[in-house]
Amino acid sequence: MAIEMFSLLLTGLGLGLLHALDADHVMAVSALSNRKPSLQRTLKFSANWAIGHGSVLIMLGLLF
């Protein structure tokens, strides 16, 4: 049972990384975060983006 769960988690991580590094995703993040470049603004934008993505995953995990 543990190896199946580990395989599933590893597959999810791999697909998540593939999604995050896809060209259209990188361009969208770059375009949205490039309005007024500063380290603080970029970190805040990145944190909000990550919280949004993570909260959806947590909700789906709780449902299923």
Write a concise synopsis of the structure shown.
The chain has 64 residues and is an all-alpha fold.
How would you describe what is shown here?
With 64 residues, the protein is an all-alpha fold. The chain has one domain. The protein contains three helices and no strands. The chain is elongated and about 50 Å long. 0% of the residues are buried. The model has no long low-confidence stretch (mean pLDDT 84).
Helix content: over 70%
What is the number of strand segments? 0
Mean pLDDT: 84
Percentage beta strand: under 5%
Shape: elongated
H/I helix tally: 3
Q: Which blocks of ≥5 consecutive residues have pLDDT under 50?
A: none
Describe the SSE topology.
Blueprint: H1 2-20, H2 23-33, H3 39-63
Short descriptors:
64 residues; mainly alpha; 3 helices; 0% strand
